[in-house]
Amino acid sequence: MIGGVEVNYYAIIVSAIISFVLGALWFSLLFGKSWTKLMGYSAKDIENAKKKGMTKSYLMGLIGQLILSYVLANFIIYADAKTIIEGIQIGAFIWLGFVATISLGMILWENKPVKLYIINTSYWLVSLIIQGIILAVWQ
Fold first, then answer.
1. Which residue from 14, 19, 31, 59 is spatially nearest to 117, judged by alpha carbons?
2. pLDDT score for 101
3. Burial annotation 36-72 (CB, 10 A radius, 16+ → b, else e)
4. What integer pLDDT is reported at residue 42 of this predicted model?
5. What integer pLDDT is reported at residue 89 of this predicted model?
6. SS (H, E, C) the chain
7. How many CA atoms lie within 13 Å of 25's alpha carbon, on the beta-carbon side?
8. pLDDT tens digits for 33-78?
9. Which of 2, 48, 73, 132 could link 87 by a cystine bridge, Cβ 3.0 to 4.6 Å?
């Protein structure tokens, strides 16, 4: 509990897991081929990563999702968002203010393609909206 705010830890865990699963689908089945190509990875790079094992990366990703869900839950409580629409608004607003703007650096400074920016940031938009809905409604 930070600043006297009590969050629903079950909602945080569920929203983090859903976001994690969405990411797995997003960057494999839905946009995996395009994302891999835009990142400049070869089939050999992917094979090598699989051989090394991805457990640590997946675990760190899940921990990151849990932290994000916890922080988002606090934003939602501070905003007194309790409906699906309010959850969507908070998720989209957080995306616009933080993810979309910070991620611009990949285009401006890292010379990554705009399409990669769109794939990556679109995932976060969908993820934050879904998490916003869950966390707003399930308090």
1. 31
2. 97
3. bebeeeeeeeeeeeeeeeeeeeeeebeeebbebbbeb
4. 86
5. 98
6. CECCECCCHHHHHHHHHHHHHHHHHHHHHHCHHHHHHHHCCCHHHHHHHHHHCCHHHHHHHHHHHHHHHHHHHHHHHHCCCCCHHHHHHHHHHHHHHHHHHHCCHHHHCCCCCHHHHHHHHHHHHHHHHHHHHHHHHCC
7. 10
8. 999 999 999 888 888 887 888 889 899 999 999 999 999 999 999 9
9. 132
Residues in the chain, total = 139
Amino acid at position 93, single letter: F
Token representation of residue 60 = 């760190």
Rg (CA), the chain: 16
Burial class, 107, CB count within 10 angstroms (exposed 0-12 / middle 13-18 / buried 19+):
middle
Percent of the chain with pLDDT over 70: 97
Give the integer Cα–Cα distance in Å for 71 and 36.
30
The per-residue pLDDT for 3 is: 63
Cα–Cα distance for residue pair 124/109, rounded to 1 Å: 20
